[in-house]
Input
Amino acid sequence: MQTAQINWSYSGGIDPLCGTGATAAERILAYGMATVFTGIILVADQSRNIPIAEGWQIALLAFFAFDIAGGAVANMLNSCKRFYHTPLQSGEGMSARLAKNPMLFTVIHVHPIIIAYALGGNVLNSVIWYALLLVSVTTVLFAPLYLRRAAATGLTVLALLGNQLLLPLGGGLEWFIPCLFIKMVLGHAVQEEPYRAG
Output
């Protein structure tokens, strides 16, 4: 069995994607994957029958791809787990306070509604997905700590199935709900032991 040191302490400047105190490897992984995902999503959009044509829509799609798809990887980093699930430190401002409150952080993720409205998706389904996101994170937070990872995984699988079979967000947005649930439900809401490198 491989072992690693668990350490909840951190220091340094706030990193909005990777968490304070992220190692170089963690940053490369998170920013690298976010860049790859963004590129794939933009290329896939341009190869559709009716690609997004307006510059501001392409920029919005790129922003959400980087934030949501990239955040699905970043929120699994030990540096993010350490940052999100420790008390607020002196010198950390409002953004850190918000990030460390899983429910408030989820509430501000109205992203499904914005992206569906702006990019021609199903707005009613996006509102339902936003409500389901809030319910899912609440469910995980009320579960005993030892069940949270499994509960979050189950809810995320339900979102994957629901996105595919029941409540599609819209053409070209098939990636969005799975990535959002991985980022917020499976990643952000689940407290896990943060391992240190080496």
